[in-house]
Request: fold
Amino acid sequence: MTQAAFQIQSTIIVLLMVIGISLRKDRRKHVPMMLLVIFWDIILVLQIELTRGAIAKASKVATNTMIMNIHVTLAISTVILYFFMLYSGRKLIKGDRSIKPLHLKVGLITFVLRIATYVTSYFIVIR
Reply:
């Protein structure tokens, strides 16, 4: 798979994430959209690993460029936060409203990290 295919997928994922966030008041639309975003993004990470050996490259922290290390840190952090978002979103669906403020805060952090991952991915491509 080419780098362009990864970038196109990433662009679509980010756009769908923006749409999903804008639909947050409509749970019937928000939940499926965000599930699509999260699972597609995790699949994208797996595609990159399987075709590019991303883990092996990322593990060379001492020899990687700073932007590569920043990108990897952002990407890993985003995926970890996806799991919290799934957990807290599930609690919300089951009626636990007490987690909503934390879900919103972590959701914003996740979104910012995903945007930063997207931006830094272009610096990795052009280097």
